[in-house]
Amino acid sequence: MIFFLFREEAVVAAEPAATIPGEPMDIMTALQLVLRKSLAYRGLARGLHESAKVIEKHAAQLCVLAEDCDQPDYVKLVKALCAEHNVSLLTVPSAKTLGEWAGLCKIDSEGKARKVTGCSCVVVKDFGEEHEAYNVVLQHVKSQ
User: Is 19 a residue whose pLDDT tops 70?
Assistant: First the structure.
């Protein structure tokens, strides 16, 4: 019998801005926490190819698109797929920010993100546990 051991990679990202307990969480902080939790549960599809496959399989729960994507065909395809398969679409200002939130970076000893790779599209397949940030994102999606 042969056994294979796969090394689990620890997902550590810079902490988002601290929220004050009495005030509501803003959507960007909540989205960052949701993406981090989904990454920990292996529930993220990153990039156009992975995202399109997940959306076509009807496994997508949320799609996040970067506003600074310079390829109009890319944006048009993602928006059309989301509209066709009734997937909620959120936008973030920067692909580098989205890449950092999706775990496409190296974390140095101080906890700062280094070598951040931009990512124009991320799809959430599994939110993981239900938490406050998850509820904030769901409320924002329903209000759109």
Answer: no
